[in-house]
Amino acid sequence: MNTRSRARFATRESRHRSDPDYSREERIQDASYTNMKVSKRDSGYRPDTDGEPCMSCESFIRPNGCSKVEGAIHPKATCDFYEWDGDSGLRAQGRALRD
Predict the structure, then answer these.
(1) Nearest-10 Cα torsion for 36, 40, 44, 49
(2) Across-strand partners of 53?
(3) What is the C-alpha separation between 33 and 5, in angstroms, rounded?
(4) Orientation of helix 3-13 relative to helix 24-34, angle to 10°
(5) Residue 46 pairs with which residues in a beta bridge?
(6) Cβ neighbours of 12 (radius 10 Å)
(7) 15-59 pLDDT tens trace
(8) 56-84 burial by CB neighbour count: b if 16+ within 10 A, else e?
(9) 0.85 exceeded by the pTM?
(10) Which of the residues 19, 28, 31, 40 could staple to 45 if both were Cys, CB 3.0 to 4.6 A apart?
(11) Cα separation, 88 vs 38, whole angstroms
(12) What is the 3-state secondary structure (H, E, C) of the chain?
């Protein structure tokens, strides 16, 4: 974290999540500055209907984790941070299901 981002985070650190002026975008930005995870609510975590399941995202950590979203993550869910990992997640998931 650089000096500018530390200063920005320090001014917001005292703001509580229940503060109505502390927007979703600010919470996501603050989490990225501090390498913290974002809540499922703020990430837009939901059942996958777009063909972009967590199991094929580069942030997915097997068997049920994520480097960006906190809590247990279902492999067939998705969120706003989805980034395709180049098909390796789907191949690895297929191998795990066969074993």
Answers:
(1) 130
(2) none
(3) 6
(4) 130
(5) 78
(6) 14
(7) 555 566 777 777 777 776 667 888 999 999 999 998 999 999 999
(8) bbebbeeeeebebbbeebebebbbebbee
(9) no
(10) 40
(11) 24
(12) CCHHHHHHHHHHHCCCCCCCCCCHHHHHHHHHHHCCCECHHHHCCEECCCCCCHHHECCEECCCEECCECCCCCCCEECCCCCECCCHHHHHHHHHHHC
Q: Pull the structure tokens for residue 90.
A: 């789907």
The type of residue at 86 is G
| Tokens linked to 73 | 């993550």
Structure tokens at 35: 């390498």
The tokens for 50 are 């777009």
